[in-house]
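User: Show me an example of a complex going from sequences to structure tokens.

Assistant: Sure. Here are the input components:
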Amino acid sequence: MKALGRHLKDINRNKAMLLMVLPASLWFICFSYLPMLGTIISFKEYRFSGSFLSSIINSKWVGFDNFKFLFRTDDAYIITRNTILYNAVFIFIGLVLAVAMAIVLSEIANKRLAKWYQTGMFMPYFLSWVIVGYFVYSFLSYDRGMINKIAVALGADPTQWYSEPKYWPLIIVLVFLWKSLGYNSVIYLAAIMGIDKSLYEAAMIDGANKWQQIRNITLPMLTPLMTILTLLAIGRIFYADFGLFYQVTRDSGTLYSVTNVIDTYVYRGLKTTGEIGMSTAAGLYQSFVGFVLVITSNSIVRRFNKDNALF
Amino acid sequence: MASLAKSRDFHRLSPVWNVTFNLIAGLFSLACVFPFLFVMILSFTDEKTLARNGYSLFPEKWSLAAYEYIFKAGDQLLRSYGVTIFVTVVGTALSLIFISLFAYAISRRSFKYRTYFAFFAFFTMLFNGGLVPTYIVTTKMLGLQNSIWALILPLTVNAFYIMIMRTFFSTMIPDAIIESGKIDGAGEFGIFFRLVVPLALPGLATIALFSTLGYWNDWFNALLYIEDPSIVPLQSMLMRIENSMQFILQNTNNPSLGMGVLQSMPQDTSRMAMVVLATGPIVLAYPFFQRYFIQGLTVGAVKE
Amino acid sequence: MSSTRKKLTFGLTSILAASLVLGACGNNKASDDSAASGNGDKGETVELSWYTIGTPQKDVDKVMEEVSKYTKEKIGATVKMTMIDWGDYNQKMQVLTASGASMDMMFTASWAFDYVQNARKGAFAPIDELLDQYGKGIKETLDPAFLEGSKVDGKNYGVPANKELPAQEVWRFNKNILDENNLSFEGVRTLESLEPLLKTVKENNPDVIPFQVDKNFMPYLPYDYLIEKFPLAVKLDDTEYKVVNVFETPEMKQALATMHKYYKAGFVPTEAATLESSSDVQATGLWFADKATTQPFADNVWSTSYGYPIISTPQSDALVYNLSVMGSMQAISANSKHKEKAMEFLNLLNTDPVLRNMVDSGIEGTHYKKVDDTHMENLPESKNYDMPTFSLGNVMLTYLNPGDPDNKWEEFKSYNDAGQPAILLGFNFDPSKVSTEIAAVQNAKEAFWAPLMTGTVDPESYVPKAIEKLQAAGLDKIMAEAQSQLDAWKAANNK
């Protein structure tokens, strides 16, 4: 009884804040938590019978059978390795370059030019992977691609780019950075703009030069954001961008050793059978691993600085 | 503005570095714009020339056929512009309100349940129920089939943006400001709208920008929920052309399909034209957001 | 600053208010709709909802209004058609079906919203009894092979469209280049027999691709595949019905070796293994020969659509495969509340020329005009109602276009009559017990399939590696399962 009273008191004390989180919380319940109940079908052989609910009830339990296809062959190792390695590189280089680019943009003296640069960097965001894939092809095509044309003009032999796995890790990383850098640097740019200018003024008075200001003020002020974004990215480390690995590589079989990732594997594997249970199972597996990784890294972050942790 | 620029003078870069920075940003941005120019040129290229010579910056023969193909749909295109703009404006406004309130609350140390709610939001970033359950909630529970709200509501809240916004709030809003508001006797909502929001404008602009782009580029919700052609958004028209081309190309070896659709196949150049039409307006609207990034708002200016 | 903020707040509030009002309106409209359909049910006539594939056409509702007037009189039902674009159809139908949405009829085929797969999962209602009761017309018009071949586990789940029945592989030639080099395709049938022609073209026309091949290419083999583009098959004349791995057959080995020879000789495009389609070369006409599936008057269709003459010669017999039977079908949803009416409608669609042509070409006088009893001509308005004819039921009822030969449908009929059933006609493999292995084999197979088929890689070294990979992924288990299903089917059907 007493505990209840205390709870009510707490709620009363926090009621303004609770009111603030209410709208989005309702949204989360509707659009995220309720649908989550559907993950049950990853343990079922899903068959249709009437409404979705009755289909679920009438479908047969299969335990973890739906997960097996992810681990059936050596491919399990390749897709896991590729997915994690690419994402690790994306997270690390992406972070460094996005922060660097944000600082560069914020320091450019001519603000009008800076605006133009920034607008330009955003353009790739608007192109779908299919179209990006066509562009990459216009560079790498064997007989019509620009790179081979240049190579031939210089007297070198043309390369069959789409059947040479060794170049692709680099190509994929470059294409990824090209497409995402503008978008990601905006977040940091906004954070830099939000830094209290009086901090810089104080540093100036102390005689700090530009580089010292960046190192001692800008970067530390950006650390919380960098930490959060990295943690969030770690949560999605088992997810790969399907379009990047499927459209940009033209689904070339010869390249699978370096381009097959979990998402492309699932797509190819389920084309013939179309089992919803199996695709849901794959998603659950990806989420679950990400979840464990985030919880772990979050607790490490907490140990150093509680404020930078996710929760 | 002039005085503002001047006041920043004292911590400018040296000219050498300034030039270097300009080069880095300039070249990268050129690399980003280039394909887009390419798309525009391609959209004006003659279809046969494109097939024969491949992608080229200086096509032998120009043509307006791609745009004619798209404008054949007539008022559909205009309607779709209207739908997209409405959805983007209303959706972004709603997003900003939902997200900033939630993010602000969980950024406040005095909020007892902040960790729970942070986790509550974060969890949705990793786990989702998949397509079918979401579809059922949206259509059967909320009854949004064929309603313009089916294009708005599913994208309103996003845990990723909440986490970013929370970080902005907790790093950029000094506790002192909130305390001063309390001393003045303002309520929590009063403090939020009068003191916190102006200080968080760069962060809010970021979220607004992302949300705008998210709404503008969304086509999937339209695929799921919209069958009524009068509320089909622009991006969905584009993706339809793109997906259908892809599908038909992949199945040309199928005798039934191959023979049946030889004529009705959309062409490569019309796809490019659609990209130009669907992206043009939002690119033009972009500078509006930039105001908050590049010029920035000094704390002093707001305090006045 | 503060006045700006006030304006902003005011602006936001008004947007919110406006959107709420609009939302309320939207909801009202929705409830009106449901009320209306409720009334419809009470008043005897039912509304059938019909999902079909194709780019949505502007005048669909307008035409369906006319169609409804006609069907209301004939069978007491009205029709609401929803068109879903080609590329969206699979996904949209998947979601609609899985969520238990109420639909009555829908398009299905081997290549769109997979007929066999979804029939097994319970998406469609079995129609055997409905056919007997309300679909007599369908049974009379269709060649029995259609219904026989589209049985899934002994039951029919869809009404196949009456169209070309057998599939026959041909070599197509770009006639201009054939004539230019004074070549003739006399005696050409096998892959190997093409060689001298390709060689001549390679020498005389350096700009031309002698043998156009893309990543979808597969050499013709006298085998019937269990699953499309999957290495399990049964030889066409094998009375034992033995399931084999095609990569282990001498025919495949020879075909791949020939392809590799052609690739090395430069007959085939260098990037064939990643070439998504041949549409570019087809547009420019810079190709000489390729492989295609034919039907009566196919040469005319190809020639008109490419804009230059095409001629073809067979490379296989005309056989009726499961795939050719399932090229275009209409199924009744398992969730439909009006299954009988839906079948009555499908029956009418497949037997009544008035209805069939209305659905296909629109309203007479608006979208098309009739020239005589069997011919029609499109009017300018037809651009708002341009339907994929083959996807909407019996094509042999449709009026002929100005350029069509008068005996078009007779030719189709005799072509269909001549087609012999392929060995696996009517047998559909059920993969549910081995879906894990299938997923793994699919991934293993995709890695080398296109490179091998297009001749890009040397089969001598690649095929053994491929076989090993397939076996590691579990091909043998799938093969054993397929064999036991096939044996059971063989016994049950007295083959």
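The lines above are the inputs; the final block is the predicted structure for all three components together. Strands of chain A lie at 44-45, 60-61.
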